[in-house]
Specification:
This protein is an all-alpha fold and about 60 residues long. About 80% of the residues lie in helices and about 0% in strands. The chain is built from 3 helices and no strands. The chain is elongated and about 45 Å long. The relative contact order is 0.17.
C-alpha cells in the first residue's frame, strides 16, 4: 500500500484498515511460528503498512490541535 493511497483515506477508514492489518499480522506470525508461511516478506510489508497508517493518523491528530 502506497503512502499516497493512505493519505487519501478518512480517519475512520484508516482505523478500520489498521485493525485488519493487525489481524493479518497476527495470522502471519502464527503461520510463521508453525512453519506454514511461504512468503516471509509479507511480514515486513504488513509491519510497514501499519507504521504508515499510524504515522498518517498521528499527523491528522496533530493537524487538528
Amino acid at each position: 500500500m502506497k503512502a499516497s493511497e493512505i493519505r487519501e483515506m478518512s480517519v475512520d477508514e484508516l482505523n478500520e484498515k489498521l485493525v485488519s492489518l493487525k489481524e493479518e499480522l497476527f495470522a502471519l506470525r502464527f503461520q510463521h511460528a508453525v512453519n506454514q508461511l511461504d512468503n516471509t516478506a509479507r511480514l515486513n510489508a504488513v509491519k510497514k503498512d501499519i507504521a504508515r497508517i499510524k504515522t498518517t493518523l498521528r499527523a491528522a491528530e496533530l493537524a487538528q490541535q
